[in-house]
Amino acid sequence: MRLSIHTFKQLQPWKNRRTGTMLAVLALFAVLGVILIRASSAATYTVGIEAESGSLSGNAASKTVASASGSAAVMFASSGAGGGGGTGAVSCDQAGIQKMVDSVSQQNIQASLQSLVQDDSKPTPNELISRHVSSPGNQIKVDWAKKQMTDYGLEVLNQPFSSGGRNLHNVSARINGTDANSLYVIGAHIDSISEKSSTQAPGADDDASGVIAVLEAARVLNGFKGCLKSTLYFNNYNDEEEEMNGAPTFLKAVSGKTVKGAYNMDMIGYAPSQECLKSDVGKSSRDQVMAQKIVDMNTKYNVGLPVTTGTYTQNGGDDLEAFWNANIPGGYLIECTTEKSTDGYPGYHSTKDVMKNVNLGQVTKTTKLLVASLAEFGMQ
Ligand SMILES: [Zn+2]
Question: Which residue, of 69, 98, 206, 235, has the fewest CB within 10 Å?
Answer without folding.
Answer: 69
